[in-house]
Structure formats: C-alpha cells, structure tokens
## 1
Amino acid sequence: MLKSTGIPTKQDLETVIPSKERLAKGPVAIIECFQKIPCNPCYTSCKRGAIKEFADINDRPELNPDICNGCGVCISNCPGLAISVVDETYSDTEALVKIPYEFIPLPDEGSFVTGLDRSGKPVCRAKVVKVLNGKAQDRTPVVSLAIPKEYSMVVRSMSLDDYYSDNTIICRCEEITLGEIREYIRKGYHTVDEIKRISRAGMGRCQGRTCTPLIMEEIERATGKKVADQKVHTYRPPTVPIKLGQLIGGEDNE
Ligand code: SF4
Ligand code: SF4
C-alpha cells in the first residue's frame, strides 16, 4: 500500500503511534518515515536527543517518546514532510495537531480550514491556531490545527477551503445549509428521514443524491452513529409539477 499509494497502512501507523499513556501526558512527535533513505535532519535537528543517533545514514528514525516534548522543530527540518506533533491534552474535546504545510498562501491564524486525512479526503473542520512560516531559516512552514479529538490520528493535511462552515450549502435544490442541518441534529432529529421531513433537504429535484450522504456523515460526526448503520430515505425519480393542460393537449413550447 505504502509503496504504491504513498499512504501508510493501519499496521504501518501502529509501529509509530505512541502509547495512550504517552499521548495522555502531552504533545509528542509522530514520525511516519517508513523507508530506508539516506536522510537524517530529524535526528540532527532534535536538540533534546529524542531521536536515536543514526548508525547508518539510511537508518529509519527511532523516536523516544518519553524524551520528546513535542516542540515541533523536527517538523520543519524534515524534507520528507513525514513528521507531525499531536497534543491530545489540548482541551477536553479538541486535539492540537502540528503539520508541515508547503503550499501558498499560508492560512491565517484564527481562520477555519478543512482537515484532510492522509489520502486527501476531507475529515473535519479545523481551526488554525498558529502558523510558523519558516521563512527565516528557509524551512517548511508548520501549521497548528485544533481539531475534534477523535481525528487526532487521522488529520495530516489541510485545505484552505472551509467545507465544514455553517454557511456551506448542503442541499442545493432546497438551499439548506450545514448550519441548519446541525441545528436540527442538536434538536434531536437523528435520522436522515427525520431531517428530510423537517427541513425539506432531499425533497428537491435530485431527491437527495448529493445531500443525503453529507447529512449522514454529519449525523455520524454529531452522534457517533456510523453511516453504515444509518437508514437511507426513499429515493424517488426526479419529477416536476406540470399543468393538467399540458397533459391533455400539450403547449406550443413543449
Ligand atoms: S518534536 Fe522536538 S523533541 Fe520531539 S523529536 Fe521533534 S525536535 Fe525532538
Ligand atoms: S528527516 Fe524526515 S524524511 Fe529524513 S529520515 Fe528523518 S523523518 Fe525521514
């Protein structure tokens, strides 16, 4: 998987993610460098000695999570963009994830972006807490994102587009926003059918082909009920109202 797609497997990740006990103590680096390559700036940049000395330049980095304090210096020095720092103690509900980000423009601190997983799939809304632009030393910029805690090991990239803003239109036919859907979920409408009936999302011409999966994902995010365990509402063919006269005799422009 890693060799063909560049995306590490769950098994790959299990070898580098620190223990729950260590994560509960504060920020720590996660080094997703899985292949033997001639490279070692992670080791030379860590002044705490948290990365074991390389016996051979091709060695894979070996982190001692008990020495690492999650400072993030190694993130901006790694040419492979292989390092992130996760702080699961950031708040009761959110984790802080520091990631390398080499695109321009850089996000503004305080803005909201979309957190992406390792394959680039949107996962959640993320708040930009800090941006280190790395210009002074010509290093990789580092962006700190506050994200829902359950995605601390999932979000490893970001998109400047804020797909998850309350203003995002979820149902284009009926012009229902994500904020409205969230409000209905907060009020206790926890099935896609209930939300369809109360909001009309999914009753437009497309019969929910776009909004239904998005609403189900939002229900999963808000309630934890997996999309696979939710019931889809009935799809009906797209129809438009027509006058009786059109049925009987047709009209010039039909
Ligand atoms: S986060 Fe800081 S302490 Fe931890 S490995 Fe990187 S440079 Fe060292
Ligand atoms: S600097 Fe980055 S790419 Fe190079 S060995 Fe260290 S983690 Fe791997």
## 2
Amino acid sequence: MERRDFLKTGFWSSIGLYLASRQVGCAFETEPDGLARAQSWHKSVCRFCGTGCGVVVGMRDGKIVAVRGDELAHNKGMMCVKGTMLAELPKLEGRLLYPMIRKDGRLQRATWDEAMTLVADKFRETLDRLGPSGIAFYGSGQLYTQESYTANKLFKAGLKSNNVDGNPRLCMASAAFGYVQSFGKDEPPGCYEDLDHAACFFIIGANPYEAHPVLFERMRLRQKADPSVKMIVVDPRRTRTAEYADLHLPVLPGTDLMLLNSMAHVILRDNLADLEFLNVHCTIQDAAGPTTLDKMRAFYREYTPERAAREMGISANLIETAAYLFATSPATMSLWTMGINQRVQGVFLNNTIITLHLMTGQIGRPGATPFSLTGQGNACGGVRDTGSLSHALPLGHQVANPEHRHTVERLWGLPPDTLNPEPGLHTVDLFKAMKDGRIGAALIMCTNPGQTLPNLDVYRRRAEGCFLVVADAVETRTTELADVVLPAALWLEKEGVYGQAERRYQLLQKLIDPPGEARSDLDILVDLAKRLGQDSLITAHDPEAVWDEWRQMSVSTKYNFSGMTYDRLKRERGLQWPCPTVDHPGTRRRYVEGDDPLVTPGSKIDFYGKPDHKAVIFLRPYEPSPERPSETYPFLLTTGRVIQQWHTGTITNRIPALRDVTPPASLEINPEDAHRLGVTSGDAVTVASRFGTITLTVAVSPVPRTGVVFASFYDADVLINRVVADYLDPISKQPDYKTTAVHIRKA
Ligand code: SF4
C-alpha cells in the first residue's frame, strides 16, 4: 500500500502503529520500489521524539530510497507514523539553501563569508560594549551532542558567557532538577525494558499514545501479554492514552500535586509503605531540612482523599484505588512528561513521583521505576548531559559551585578561576533581556522560540540593536525575526550522537550531502570560534574528534561513558551509560548492583549520587495554581501535541502526507461547555487570557472534561502560545504551559 493511501485509511491513528510495526514491516519507500532497489542499508536513529527509535536507511546511488524500523534496536523494529516519513526529509519543501542578511528590512542572499564576518563582528562589538553578559546562545535538544558541547564550551569557556540555554528548559528542566534533588544525579534510573516487566503503569501528565507512540505500543503489548497489568492515567482529558486505562483520573489542570500527596496519605494510612526500604535507602526532608518518619506521617495526614477529591473535581474513591494499585503491584512504572514538567510546581511534582516510588520500594527492580519521558531526540544526551543550560556545566556540574567550576576548568584545560561564576540567564529571562537591550547579540540554533515561548507576543519583541542570528534547516516563526539566517544541515546530512531518555547514546552517520550551501551546526560553530579568536580552545573540528574529547571528559565522573568509543557506536545499537570500559555492555538500571558498575559492591541498591548514598524523600506542599478559573476567565486552557505532528511542525507539517491528515489546530471543547457557550464545531471563537487574545476554530469533543479546553501548539498559523501564561517554576525556571485561565466568546 502507498504511504499516502495507508495514512488516509486512518488505521495509523487507532491501530496503525501496530500494523506498521508488525504487518507492514514498518518499511516505507520514498522512491518506487525503494525497498527492493536499495543497494545498501545503514543503521541510524529517528530524528524526532525522545524515544530515539533505531531505523535502518536504504540507499541507492547516493540517495535515501527507503527507511524501516530497526529490529535490532531497542524499539524492536517499531516506528510511529512520523518515523515512517523520515525518508522524506531529504526532499523537504522550503529548505534554506544559502545564508541571508537582513538589508532594508528584507532577508537577502549573502555568501557564507559575508554572513559569518558580520556575525563575528557583531558578537565582538557586543562583547566590547556589554561584556560577556551581553551575548547569548540558545540551543536545542535536536542539535547533536557534539554541537551542543562545542557551543557550550565556546560560550562558557571561551567567551566567558553563561548565557547558554535552550529549549530543554521549556520541556524537561523540572525533571532534571527533580532527579538531581532526589538522587543527586540527573537522568532516569530505569530503562525502556522496564516497560516489558511493569505490572502497573502510572501515567501522569503524558499522552504517550500521541507523543511517544512506540513506547505506548510497548505498554499495550505488555498488557496483551498479561491482562492483569494495570494502567492508571491522570489527565484532565480523556486522551487516546486514557481510553486504554483501567483507571482514568480526570483531575483539574494544576491540581495533581494534591493527588500525589493524597496517594502518599493512603499509602501511609493503610500501611502500604515499604518501611524497610525507606529506612535503609532513604532520608526524609521537608522545607526546613532533614526530618523524621513521624513528621512525614504528620505532613501527609492533611491530604485526605476527600479533601483532595474536592480540589481536583474527582471522586475520593479514584484516589484510594490509584494508591492501592501503585503500592501493591509487583512492579510499578511511572511515566510522565510535559503535564508534570511544565508547571509552576514542576520540580515538586517530580520529587513527589519519585517519593512515591521510594516510599513503596517500587524502584530498582525490573518494571519498578520512575521514568520521565523526553520530548526531543537529544535533550538528555545533548543538553542535560553536556550542561548546556545557563546554570550548568558538563557532566552534572553547576556554575554556582566553586568546586564544580574548578573541576571543569581542569577538564577543559583552563587556568583556575577563569570560568564565569555567575549563572547565566534562563530562557524566559534571556528573551526578556533581548527585549530590554541587555542582550546585544544572540545565536539561536535548531529551534523555534518564535513559536514556542509562552506569552509569545511579549518575547517575540527585541530591542533596537539586538542582533539575532538563527541557524535552521527551514524558515520558521523564528527565522522571520532574524538579522542573519544561516542554512543548516538536517538529520543524515551531518553526523553526530543522540542521547535519549534511557541514557542511551546512538550515532547517526552522515549519508547524504546537505542541499545548496547548508552546513552542519558544528561547522558553523567551529567557523565562529575561529573568527572570534577561540581556535586554541575549540580544537576538535569533526564529530569524531569532538566525541572523543567529550568521552574522555566523562572518565572521572558518575556519567562515565568512556567505554563508548566511536568505533563501538558505529557497530552497536547505542549504549547506555555508565559504560566505563570498552568491554562494558552499558547500564540498564542505574543504582542497582550487578547492572550499574558504579554501585558499591554488596549494597544491592546504592544511591551513590548523594554523599550518604541515600535518596531523598521530599515532603512537598501543594499550592493552588496562580491561574484558577474565575468569573472573568472561567475555563482552563491546556496545550499539547497531536500524533501526526512533531513540536512546531516545521518539518512534519512540510511533509505532504502528514500535512494532508492533520487538521488545523482548533480549540477542543466539551459538548456541555459548547452548549452553554452556544458554539458548535467549526465556529470561530475568541480565546482571551490575561496574556493575549487569539481567534481559532471550535472542535466539540468529549475528550476534555468540562471547564477545560485544549489546543495543540504545532500550528504556526494559530500560535496558541500567544495566550499561554508565563509563570515559572521558581527552581527549574520552566514555564507553566498547562494551566492558563481563559475567556471564550463566539467570534
Ligand atoms: S517520532 Fe518518536 S516514536 Fe516515532 S519513530 Fe520517531 S523516535 Fe520513534
């Protein structure tokens, strides 16, 4: 069947993933007979979501002619509908082919030398005028690791600016802070293989059916293999994921810390906690510092299911059942993503999910683990691990910690006390600083903040004289704001490493040349470094050399992936760190003896990220969201994804087969609410919040609960983020995209 016809059947949206993976063989041709005509096959990785599916790419006469799921990779040959379109990327409409400089208000063609000379001059002038705090780099969880690493080193070690941040701040900063606080180290302890062993899936603030379809299919296969496996879904919408749940808790947006604390209440009240595990492996902490088990019991006592149920608009019975299933299942695996991370209490929510696992001993066994899902293919490996955020340094080090700075200075071969001790600006502050003139020159790579920032109209503005450079493969709502646009290579037009959510690093080798004059982001960064006089610092110029430098840096740290040589990455289907020697198979479950080589022998479980080798149970009080329904703004808007499109649709919405099957982003509204407002599907409505107003089309649907409306953020014409609130989590500085009070009126 032709892909276009296959998509039109609609199969993919209900059972198509399974069909694609098992019956169609998950192989798709981009040329007639591509599968049969391919002369060679090359292992690679999907460029889209954080699942990081392995794919095999068929080539003929130097062209990509087919792509299939890699049976030998962790995804066992499965791909979702987006992955099946990978072979279209070389033919993507509207690629940027040459550099452009804005002249007379218009972006006009330039040579690379003209563009890069101008960029270097502007950065140099800004450094003279404003100092290192006046320049910035804004990166992406889609850049390759070598690219994020080089940008971070150039700006922090070379130009002495810690204004290095990126889109993972918008999607997983709260998860990263949560892991560091609870375990002392970032990144999930578990792995995808845990999906095959879990007896209870606790899915909260995530819609994996649409956003991580291959992982969701793996959960469904587990359920089919063992019908006693339970699935709990916490979501204000009855999503496609929730349709498969044994228990769906449609909580009001912004209230789920109340739910988690209430589950802890039930677990302690009914003696479902694993106190032996807790005593041996955990410490307890409240806002004042270390505390006792008795204080913990007292803290949770006030979170009765009855009180929580009133706050969340669900029945107390649902909370009791969820707590029992979570605590008593042979192995519970929690999965969460933006619904938890993009919240004012995002770090507290992450802490508390981990706390439930620690309290019940649901960790360190196959299938028992907290596991945060990741939005982008290389947010973990590229940005979190390399420390490419404004507060961070590579390998879990922090800018504000003098010892950490000294360690990184030694690893980078810098004289002592030469790294800037002041953390830089996090994403929202960085764009605020562009608006008020504190940032004079910024480079944005491989991301689209002109569409993704909350309270968008405010942050799309720039001060007169703030010079903006954007490198991307296609025109976006961000390139339209730039003074210089640099054409970037995409996917297999360049080479690099992606690191996905289970700590697995995978190599993507270059197979084709980029179109026109496009260059890899690494080439652009190396060029900029030379022009800014940083050639003695940025000495690794190709992906393998950068990887080796980065790999060697990890030797003395708890990340240690020095055993992942480039040669191994070329041969193997990715490796999970820690991986300290060239013969180490990689670590599936962290902190577990026999699996993790860093565990103290004889300890069985060793939370070695903390000095006392114990994980922390944090007692985190629930606070109501700053955005609550009111008379003026009676609805809560929440945003998210659709299965056909990835992020802002800059790539997927340029693929005709996907574009054809994606309706424009609309406002999903419950039939009861629609009736009250006197609107029906297809009507135009004005949606107004305290932050902005937009007009969009109604889609009446039973998916959201009453009082809640939903819109996807993929649509560049709708720009839903113009109305979304920009409150931040005070610890992670991640914006709360999930709870905005709005007013709706028929337009
Ligand atoms: S988009 Fe995600 S789930 Fe789909 S094929 Fe790519 S990596 Fe796999």
## 3
Amino acid sequence: MRVLAIGDVTSPGGIAHLEKHLWRVRREEKIDFCIVNAENAAGVYSYTPEQAERLLGAGADVLSGGNHTMRQRASYGILDENEALLRPINYGGEAPGRGYTVMRVGGVRVMVICAMGNIHIEPTLDAPYAFIERALAREKGNYDIAILDIHAEATGEKLSVAHAFDGRLAVAFGTHTHVPTADLKILPKGTGYVSDLGMCGESGGILGMDAEGVVKKLRYHLPDRFVPSKGAPTADGVIFDIDEAQGVTVALRRICF
Ligand SMILES: [Fe+2]
C-alpha cells in the first residue's frame, strides 16, 4: 500500500492549500492512506473543530499532533470523539484524546501512533519509548502495519526512536521542525525513515511565519504576534510504499506540491 505523510500545516492558508490540491495528488499518486500533521493548522496553536473537519474533508485520513495540540481547548471534545485525531501518546491516559488509532484501509489494518520527543522541546514529558512499546503490545494482533509520527526537535532523538523500533514499524517519520530533510532511508530491518517531512503553508518566511516577527523575538527578545508568511503555499511530504504482508517500507520518495 502507498502512504502519503504531509508535514506540519502551519496556517489556515495551508488548510486551504490542501483543500485545493490534496485529493488530486492522492488520485495522481495512487495514495491509499494519508496522514497530515496538523498541530499548527490554526497558525501556531493546533486547530479548531471546524478546521479539523476541513482537513479530513480535504483528504487527510489521520491528523497527527504535537506540542501545540493541547493548546486549543475548543478541540478537546473532538479529540475525544474522533478516532482520526491524535495527540502525543506520552501525554498519558488522563489527557483528552488518544495517542494512537487503528484504521482499516481496504483489507489492511493500519496503526498510527503520534509520539513526542523530550529533548530541547518538552523536557517535562517522559521519553516516548515505553509509551510506543506499550501501545504496540496492547494492539498486538490487531494491526498489520504500524506508522509512527515522532514529533521532536532533535534529529538524534528521532533517529534513536526509529532505530529502537526498526522492523516493528513500517514507517517512522519526523515532524515539528518544519524543515524538509534529505535523509530518506530504509533502516536495516525495514522501517522507512525521514527526520522531518517539512511543512504545509505559506513559503518564504521562517518555518511558515513572517520573518519580521520571528527576528524581532529572537534578535531583540521583544514579544510579537507571529503571522503567516506571505509567499505561495506549498506542501512537503513523503510517499512510502509499504509491503503490508511484511509490515515494512520497500521504497520512499519526496513530494512537494
Ligand atoms: Fe511542534
């Protein structure tokens, strides 16, 4: 089966971009299943319930999350109700929503896990390994392939998590930095890996945001509102071809539209 994963949607402009293009790309590339990281879709802070519905209507089968997912209180209800929406699994069982889901795609049971790193991003979180291990154990026999979104800042941590579960995950892709990396590879036991998918939103600024506000904050330490950049929207993603009988990736390549 063929899976498309798209990097962090950074703004409502990114949502509109997917509404305009994603179904066409899915048809042209014969995509069976699509995961979109939506943790910044409202512009930094997660998404509203209406924006989540729009992204699902645009062609996303699962909306993955990250460190900003829980900052949109209006979405706690939909996180609880909709099995296609994920927040990081290492937030624990008492947080609203879920950290993984299992969906049927044709005859294939696809498990998608969202986990966060804790190096240079959210040091109070427990590391993701034990959470992923427990989820895979709990669902043993209930899924054919497993896909992980490792939402983290440090490339080394993303690689470490992917290697720790090499061969047990068909795919481990990184998100959060909004910068598409060139290190696509298949790990020794078959996990398809990339350190960061990139982003979906207005180009030309800094990680999707207009450069002026970011420079003001980082250079002068002055508070400012981040607004989306003014360039044309684009979407960065990676297409994974998966052998569902073995639960591993056999080919992967980048896509940008
Ligand atoms: Fe993030």
